[in-house]
Fold this sequence. Notes:
By secondary structure, the protein is an all-beta fold. The protein has strands at residues 5-6, 40-45, 56-58, 64-69, 72-78, 85-92, 98-112, 115-123, 126-132, 136-138, 147-152, 167-174, 179-184, 187-194, 203-210, 216-232.
Amino acid sequence: xxxxxxxxxxxxxxxxxxxxxxxxxxxxxxxxxxxxxxxxxxxxxxxxxxxxxxxxxxxxxxxxxxxxxxxxxxxxxxxxxxxxxxxxxxxxxxxxxxxxxxxxxxxxxxxxxxxxxxxxxxxxxxxxxxxxxxxxxxxxxxxxxxxxxxxxxxxxxxxxxxxxxxxxxxxxxxxxxxxxxxxxxxxxxxxxxxxxxxxxxxxxxxxxxxxxxxxxxxxxxxxxxxxxxxxxxxxx
Length: 236
């Protein structure tokens, strides 16, 4: 595996601190239904030998380390930092030029005390964030444009075997309807609809977040990925 660079990003549950460039609004054509979408992968981290230096690791807590081995990234240790801290990985996105975009990561939780597994990314509408912390929770709290919540599932939902089997945190955005849908595997958790268009995405982040010192975590991640589908949208 090629050398992985180290990088630190601010958290998605902690206050949002990534600068965003808001581009011009766009006209969006109609798109095909989600079930029949023909997806094209535009960014991925399989965590195998083909991963390159565009996969960035951020490890701001000296008590929690990320190890890539056996085709997965394992984040484990005991937090030594007070307050919210994120540990994990991010990858740039290139080619988000279609009407639909899906971001996802697979995870398995051996231990997560005072912490949570996180999938998040910045957008021109604010931070999108989906976490697992004893249940799957969509976090529509870091948006910077008006939105409405169209569907919301009990955040206590769980498959019950997250410590033994991998499951997916997934978010799908449809520019034709301006709806962001949150999924655990194929289970719909929540849907929010933005009042303004969302511009092309530029990076995706996955990892864990701890909320204070002495938090013990062991989480495995795999298959960080971004896919697009539908017709191209015209960027003005």
